[in-house]
Amino acid sequence: MLRRNTIGIVGTGQVGMAAASALFQQRIANELILIDRDHRRAEGEAMDLMHAQGYAGRRAVRAGGYEDLAEAQIVIVTAGVGQKPGEDRLSLLNRNVLVFKEIAAQLDRHAPEAILLTENDGMIKDVNSGFTRLFGSIGFDATTTLEIADEADVTEPLIYYHFKGKHELFKISLDLAFNEYFARLNKLPKRTSTEFQKFANIIDLHFQIVDDLPEQMRMIVTTCPAKLNDLNNICLKNIKKARQIVVNYISDCLNAGKESGEFRKVPVPATANMLVALLNGLLRQGGISIG
Q1: For the structural domain made of 128-283, what CATH number should be given?
Q2: Does the structure show a pLDDT above 80 at 230?
Q3: Spatial strand order in the sheet of 74-77
Q4: So where are the chain's domains?
Q5: Least C-beta-crowded within 10 Å: which of 181, 246, 254, 271?
């Protein structure tokens, strides 16, 4: 008895249907199951493909639900939400993460043995790494989208297909770097045996993030200083937020240390600013600045 090959496709947008058409025409699967939140759309797409049976041979294509994927050997996930007017790419990414989590839960329940394929995000990662390296080495203004494409080994039109331009690329990379930085600051221990240990923790954190994200940090220190006069620029907003968090942290340490007798009575605002400047001086060589 011949083995029945079943492939499920979650998401019947342009990418999903391009995959379905290729699989159908190349006769790779005996059965294609199309799943979409809009079930009527999936049904329509399935019927369109079935009209081509005279060319591709007997291949079953039908709309279904996750419960129909129990016998599927492969599931291809192309579903996602589109970008809203004015929405930045990071917000779009976060909304798509929620969509994928919902899909993954359904697949784990109904098709736990299937091979899962998603849209290739390798190109996006290559582009991200490419422009981050270029922004860090030669600066934002000197970097062109053609150079970014060459660095990522893709065509320039592909850059503009996924992104509005290098300003959006810069914002995405900057957001990712600062979000990681803010997350690490929030994870600093609130209670330590001494206030001095808190100082040691925040210094270690800054050196560690430079080691972990060297290209992003070089990009920040290379590009952001020239943009700090622009009140609407993302550099200024993130650096002001970072500075405020660090100043508050150090100020709390100083106040607590003064009360416990661990530190001498010193003017807290001036001392906090001095320590931030010292921290910046230590870290500039590694590529990060907190203002």
Answers
A1: 1.10.357.10
A2: no
A3: 60-63, 31-35, 6-10, 74-77, 115-118
A4: 6-118, 128-283
A5: 271
